[in-house]
């Protein structure tokens, strides 16, 4: 239990140092941009029907490879 408490304290200190430094701010900005991009790709994937086309293409490839 002591090790867990020490780990939590170190993690909290690390997160706090990232939050205060510009490096931490930059990392957070990159993560937020990445999240927005991923959400956009997932929405595009669902709305445009790409998932259906990809499933059909992969099934076709799988059928040709499988004996």
Can you describe this structure?
Helix 1 crosses helix 2 (22-48). This protein has helices at residues 2-20, 22-48, 50-65. It is built from three helices and no strands. It is elongated and about 55 Å long. By secondary structure, the protein is mostly helical. It has one domain.
Strand content: under 5%
- Amino- and carboxy-terminal Cα gap: 55 Å
Number of strands: 0
Radius of gyration, CA atoms, in whole angstroms: 22 Å
User: What's the helical proportion of residues?
Assistant: over 70%
Largest sheet composition: none
> Poorly predicted ranges (pLDDT <50, ≥5 residues)?
none
Instruction: Output the helix-strand order.
Output: HHH
What's the mean pLDDT score?
Answer: 82
Shape: elongated
Summing up helix and strand content along with how strands pair, one would put the structural category as mainly alpha
Keywords:
93% helix, 3 helices, mainly alpha, 67 residues
Topology:
Elements: H1 2-20, H2 22-48, H3 50-65
Helix pairs in contact: 1-2
What is shown here, in short?
By secondary structure, the protein is mostly helical. Helices cover 93% and strands 0% of the residues.
């Amino acid at each position: 239990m002591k090790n867990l408490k020490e780990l939590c304290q170190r993690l909290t200190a690390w997160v706090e140092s990232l939050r205060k430094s510009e490096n931490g701010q930059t990392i957070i900005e990159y993560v937020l941009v990445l999240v927005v991009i991923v959400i956009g790709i997932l929405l595009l994937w669902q709305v445009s029907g790409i998932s259906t086309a990809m499933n059909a293409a992969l099934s076709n490839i799988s059928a040709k490879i499988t004996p």
